[in-house]
Design a protein that fits this description.
The structure is a homodimer of 490-residue chains. With 490 residues, the first copy, chain A, is of the alpha+beta class. Chain A contains 18 helices and 19 strands. The first copy, chain A, has two domains: 310 residues, 2-Layer Sandwich (BirA Bifunctional Protein, domain 2); 110 residues, Anticodon-binding domain (Rossmann fold, 3-Layer(aba) Sandwich), CATH 3.40.50. Helices cover 40% and strands 21% of the residues of chain A.
Chain lengths: 490, 490
């Protein structure tokens, strides 16, 4: 019977691909988001928190010939037949919100959003089905100044969260240039253009020769599988590669290289001119090429971008899981998309925006030692005499009134060793001990737990030799002494 | 054709019962949560952010004889047959997390969580299917000190967000007392006890005579419908009502009244003793009866509470939708529940905790004028000459460097009136105007938009008469003058 019962118990596990965040993980992320929001807000962007649940219709995840929502979203059917789904990004809800409230919202509408999104995809190591995004978008402005502003916003945001100048690089490009080049090459089919787009997006992974093969006949990948190519002739592939590698030593050279590639394409020229305008705005804003550069190697894979695209890369080196040095890489990207609102209203609404990969940026801050929620736990006031819990409570209140994080031990106080183990487990800087003897003599004991740990790790520690890890102080010195301990570990 | 196309467009609406939050709504809530977290953290509670999605099994929302999840949750079936659901509160996920990580987590485990929860219920006015909760719980402590701590934590939290002493009251009670009284009355059936519990929970709505009727034969409610009663004899109902109204002028009287009602019930006496201990801890902690009182009229409807229960009420008066004065009422409640973790592990784990109704508390702060995200929009730098956008960009950067929220107008600059309308719509304190003339003379114009609005609202405004709403300053005085305007509206 007992066994049966056990088998009927629910399993205490997160669903596959989901995870929990504990303590400083939560605090560090919130602190980072707060610092991002500060900059977004200072640029005139307004907060928006849309609902996590959208109609599948609004998300646009129904395939035309299928009566169930597309893979990739978590969806369910309501009793009244409506399909609902969890948002998979923050851009689709923005398009819905702007279409819904367009008469009340200012135009242009600058908004930022931060929050979880959900993807019904196969989870993998480090790939979760719920993760945070943090977006800034400007809806309703066709001006290139809006795109430029987002690039400058990205610089200020990265610096505000703690990525130093020199450790990041914003790269901007323009889809119209590539479109112009493809036009000059007389490649018109959308499917072929999309295939080229997806291929060139792999430039930083497979390099110049890899891209040349993938644009042509195809190539063997590292696993030995043969990847079919796009089927361009060698001369055509050369032109695309020339585009990707057209960045010159200065902006003038880059623009000249691009002009040579676009031939007589009008859309191509428009793209080059837009890049020139953006470069001018960056310079005027004081964002030199060490911060933002025009770099045609950045194309962004998504089909829906229509003009400028941009990406933030962190340039400092880290060791990957195999111990090899590599650049940290991209933490953010975006661009101009002009058709998302049109789905709802029939009218094209120009928009441009960026999404920050919150987990990746947080990982970068940790790498740089810049995400530091204090790992210190609370001061633990131990319980020597369970009938005197109200006295211990008073001590805790006294510490808290002095802005010291503190708690009274609430487990079974019988085994005093357990209380100290608990304090260790909490990462407490100090335990406070008040038995009858101390009580009667108006004193109190403090155990410096960090020092205690250090002393137990090394037999002789010259630097600590004058500091005993446990000592008695006058009761009225308690707060002062605890403060001294806390300060010594700052 | 055009019409067909229109009908195929998705509707831009939030799903029924969901809503979006804009600008200061988002900021005010975040600021309040931040202030709550400060206090929770200072009490030694650790942040936890569990995933929004849980297995239905872990949430426990499968009815035993039904193969679909219970109503009340949003759920869907995965391809591999697992049912997943959105969390409906923060307590069920805590039980799962504690069971899952119990070997790594400290015991007792004090944790706080804040975030949205989802209820698949019929929405109504002001009742949404996604809303925020903000919980603090202590898992693994059987000590009454843990319950007392949560009551004191509530006081400090309410004061920290801006509810003044005297505007709130924490009321504590103990389920064991009522259980003891029912034991003395020889009412044993769980269903009858639950019915009594649900009934007495309506005490503050229907009053003493209403409760007496509902405990007995029943009563006509305001709509004219007859509500069946629990069926207690008059003498029995009298005892229950005596319990609800047993609060005396001081704690000693209340405890004496309760002791008279519990007869010889051991569990009842345990409850009274626990209340006495709690009262002692409140007093020792400096939380007088003006802040926390023992009040037997608070029972909390939920069946799963096993000991102390507590509630935070705001006592200041507001006008309800019908213009009648009433107390603001409850913003938070909780209690001790000892069986939630047992579902997973088979071992009872004592726990106690509280949930703050985030939307209600925020509404209270607004009522008190204490939730004030600045309603001021950014300074808007207008565009007089679209070729000089980089100059306007420089002005914006200059303002931002002086910590002034500012943006350049990004819409079509052709119609200058639209730019000022936009600035008004944004709630901008000031617009900055630099045409060719100003440029050449090293000056710049500032339009004080708030003053402008005031002047246009009243014909003569003595207090403003020396301040024109639009004026010209030297270009190098811009930042200083804008600061003066901002300061005058603080």
């Amino acid at each position: 019977m007992a066994k049966d019962k056990k088998q009927n118990r629910p399993k205490a596990i997160t669903p596959k691909g989901f995870r929990d965040y504990f303590g400083s993980e939560v605090i560090e992320r919130n602190q980072m988001l707060q610092k991002i929001a500060e900059i977004y807000h200072s640029y005139g962007f307004e907060a928006l928190e849309s609902s996590a649940v959208e109609t599948v219709e609004a998300l646009g995840k129904f395939l035309p010939d299928i009566d169930q929502p597309n893979e990739g979203v978590f969806a369910w059917q309501e009793d009244d037949q409506d399909w609902l789904a969890l948002r998979y990004d923050l851009t689709a809800p923005l398009a819905r919100v702007y279409a819904q409230y367009r008469n009340e919202l200012p135009t242009p509408y600058r908004r930022y959003s931060m929050g979880p999104v959900w993807r019904n995809e196969k989870p993998g190591p480090g790939r979760y089905r719920q993760f945070y995004q943090c977006d800034a978008d400007t809806v309703g402005s066709a001006s290139i100044a809006a795109d430029s502003e987002i690039c400058m916003l990205l610089c200020d945001t990265l610096e505000n969260v703690g990525i130093a100048e020199g450790d990041y690089k914003i790269k901007a490009n323009n889809r119209k240039v590539l479109n112009g080049i493809l036009e000059s090459m007389n490649i018109q089919e959308t499917s072929k253009r999309d295939a080229i787009l997806r291929t060139v997006d792999k430039f930083d992974k497979v390099g110049e020769s890899g891209i040349r093969q993938l644009l042509g006949k195809g190539r063997l990948d590292a696993s030995g599988a043969y990847i079919d190519g796009v089927g361009l002739a060698d001369g055509e592939a050369d032109i695309v590669v020339a585009f990707l590698t057209s960045k010159g030593s200065n902006i003038e050279t880059t623009l000249k290289n691009l002009k040579n590639l676009i031939g007589s394409s009008e859309i191509g020229l428009e793209g080059v001119n837009e890049l020139e305008t953006m470069a001018g705005l960056f310079e005027a804003g004081g964002y030199g090429s060490n911060k933002i550069s025009i770099d045609p190697s950045v194309v962004r894979g998504l089909g829906y971008y229509t003009g400028p695209v941009y990406e933030a890369e962190l340039t400092f080196e880290i060791f990957d899981e195999k111990g090899r040095k590599r650049q940290f890489g991209s933490v953010s990207g975006g661009g101009r998309y002009d058709d998302l609102v049109k789905r709802f209203t029939g009218q094209a609404v120009p928009a441009t925006g960026v999404s920050i990969g919150v987990d990746r940026l947080l990982a970068a801050l940790k790498e740089k030692g810049r995400a530091r929620a204090s790992g210190l736990g609370p001061v633990v006031v131990t319980v020597m005499d369970r009938d005197r819990i109200s006295d211990y409570q008073k001590i805790v209140t006294e510490l808290r009134n002095a802005s010291i994080r503190a708690e009274v031990y609430l487990g079974n106080p019988k085994n005093f060793g357990n209380q100290l183990k608990y304090a260790d487990n909490r990462g407490s800087p100090a335990a406070v001990i008040e038995g009858t003897e101390e009580r009667e003599s108006g004193t109190i004991q403090i155990k410096d737990l960090i020092l205690g740990k250090k002393l137990s790790e090394a037999a002789t520690l010259e630097e600590w030799k004058d500091r005993p890890s446990q000592f008695t102080v006058r009761r009225d010195e308690l707060v002062q002494k605890i403060k001294e301990i806390l300060n010594s570990y700052k």
